Amino acid sequence: MEYLLLIYEDATTPVECQTPSNEDGHSTVLDEYMAFTKEVESAGILLGANPLQPIETATTVRIRNGKTETVDGPFAETKENLAGYYLLNCQSQDEALTWAAKIPGAKWGSIEVRPIMNLT
């Protein structure tokens, strides 16, 4: 079954401030994400993954009274924002939860695990 692992981070704290850099000044967060990505690739369960641009780049679209409205930024006010995702093919929800706990962002944010609805 396919599971979408949604990575949420604190919108008020830049990720660079949430985790340290190594001696070279390179972000250890990026290293951790690259290692996790290689791990799920090696396990043969990775279907897709992408980080998202900062929340300031978002635009919300909605239709009200037949008119299309666009608003800069997210629709909902929240302390956390969606930062990226992994789409994994896991045997069970327990397996998906185990992988979610390994995502580096779980240390300072949260990971929402949602099964993909199969319509076919």
TrEMBL record:
<dbReference type="InterPro" id="IPR005545">
    <property type="entry name" value="YCII"/>
</dbReference>
<dbReference type="Pfam" id="PF03795">
    <property type="entry name" value="YCII"/>
</dbReference>
<dbReference type="InterPro" id="IPR011008">
    <property type="entry name" value="Dimeric_a/b-barrel"/>
</dbReference>
<feature type="domain" description="YCII-related">
    <location>
        <begin position="1"/>
        <end position="118"/>
    </location>
</feature>
<comment type="similarity">
    <text>Belongs to the YciI family.</text>
</comment>
<protein>
    <submittedName>
        <fullName>YciI family protein</fullName>
    </submittedName>
</protein>
